[in-house]
Amino acid sequence: MLRPGDTICAPATGKGGAISIIRVSGPDCFSICKKIFFPVDRNADVLSLKGYSIVYGEIKAGDEIIDDVLVSIFRAPHSYTGEDSVEISCHASQYIIQKIMELLINNGATSAYPGEFTQRAFANGKMDLSQAEAVADIISSTSRAAHKIAVNQMRGGFSAEISKLRAELLHFASLIELELDFGEEDVELADRNDLKAIVLKVKTVADKLASSFKTGNAIRNGIPVVIVGKPNSGKSTLLNALLSEDRAIVSEIPGTTRDTIEDTMSIDGIMFRFIDTAGLRETTDVIESLGINRTYEKVKQAAVILLLDEITDAPDEINDRADSIRKLIDEDQRLIVIINKIDKGSSELKELERKIRISESEAKIFISAKNRTGIDELKKIIVDTSIQEKLGSDDVIINNIRHFEALKNVSASLGRVIEGLDNSVPDDLIAIDIRHAMHYLGEITGEITSDEILGNIFKNFCIGK
Ligand code: GDP
């Protein structure tokens, strides 16, 4: 798809607003621009202006003035694409945009494909592939958390780590291959213990990055939350209380579809998605139904499990119910034990508080869903237990399925290397697995690419990016 000799153009801004920007990039952008743009300052010449200058003038089609515009000049390599580029800021009329595009094309530019500017930036070494993908994520991010991940990735934290790991592997792969070149001579250039240590290290990092995908994916699509509890414990009331202020905000975000079974809400800039809330009114008594109906599946899918009990329930009953959930979930999942209907009052509140046991990673809270007492505090607990610690840390979070799959392959290849080293498998086979691991690491950063991978990534971009 790359056509480096061509000068490409496209509107870079969406509909709406007063100003639009048309981007032009490629070797002929200045000469094409000169044919249609006439600076007010007759001495100014786009062919000779320095990079980062802005010129005011008119776009003309023959004698006809199309618009007053500002033209920004970018000289290679100091532009988004790394090529000579201009950006024409014009008035945001569809007619004007259309007309300027027409003029550019008639004078030798071609219309850009979706993502072509970013693809050029990648091809010219302005960014690696995972950074290019992050550009698309930044544009589509709808929450603070998704934005943070995308920004981190665009800054290159993630690829820097991958490139470093790859370089360490490359070192060993080369040594082993060199040994193989010596043939029959028994030369050992790569210390097998050092090799194993490095392979283990890379595998640990790859596994850690791969496991962060669960968080990254959740942030992208909404962190899954499930409410369980016996019938009439107040699950629907609680859901309404949680969602009440947020509904409007959530449905305003373009591209978020709220169908009847999925409710989403954003707390503190983080998206939460309630699993199958349409079924809330069904019998979902955890004790009776775990393992025999869909409650089991729902709990399995959730990152946060809200177990709703009533103040009138016996402490043992609440503890038993919580235990049955604990049996199902793994260490990544968070249980919050909620005791509802405190407005009904209880003489044994303190007693109940003391008798309900929770572990360090869990939380318990007393609320009244009906009166909305404790709802804000519950929201805070949901954020804190599910994500805050992960977002606060500098750990890289993967949110891209392509990266996840590549990391899984890295891990599998390195697993074979370790097995091979332990079982004295021939060196040439070990070298092949190291090369495989390097290949998959390189796929993430774009050091290894195929047209298919590139095509898949850039087709998802908007035109003009
Ligand atoms: P679900 O079957 O678990 O979804 O329970 P609902 O949300 O339908 O609530 C069952 C009943 O409990 C309804 O009559 C609610 O009004 C009532 N309820 C829910 N929350 C509270 C609360 O905090 N206090 C009191 N007193 N009643 C509540």
Radius of gyration: 29 Å
Question: Which regions contain 5 or more consecutive residues with pLDDT less than 50?
Answer: 246-261
The tally of helices reads 17
Major sheet, described briefly?
A: 7 strands, mixed
Q: What number is the mean pLDDT?
A: 85
Coarse structural class? alpha/beta
Bound molecules: guanosine-5'-diphosphate
**Overall number of strands:** 13
Amino-to-carboxy terminus distance: 15 Å
Strand content: 15-25%
* Order of H and E elements: EEHEEEEHEHHHHHEHHEEHHEHEHEHHHH
Describe this structure in words.
This protein is an alpha/beta fold. Helices cover 48% and strands 17% of the residues. It contains 17 helices and 13 strands. The protein has helices at 29-36, 94-106, 116-123, 129-140, 144-155, 157-181, 192-221, 235-243, 247-252, 286-289, 294-301, 315-326, 349-355, 375-392, 401-422, 427-445, 451-458; strands spanning 8-11, 19-25, 37-39, 54-61, 64-74, 85-91, 110-111, 223-229, 263-267, 270-274, 304-310, 334-340, 363-366. The strands form 2 sheets. Strands 3-4-5-6-2-1-7 form a 7-stranded mixed β-sheet. β9 (263-267) and β10 form a beta hairpin. α4 packs antiparallel against α5 (144-155), α6 (157-181) runs antiparallel to α16 and α7 packs antiparallel against α15. The longest helix has 30 residues, at 192-221. The chain is flat and about 85 Å long. It starts with 7 loop residues before the first strand and ends in a 7-residue tail after the last helix. The model is unreliable at 246-261 (pLDDT under 50). The structure holds guanosine-5'-diphosphate (GDP).
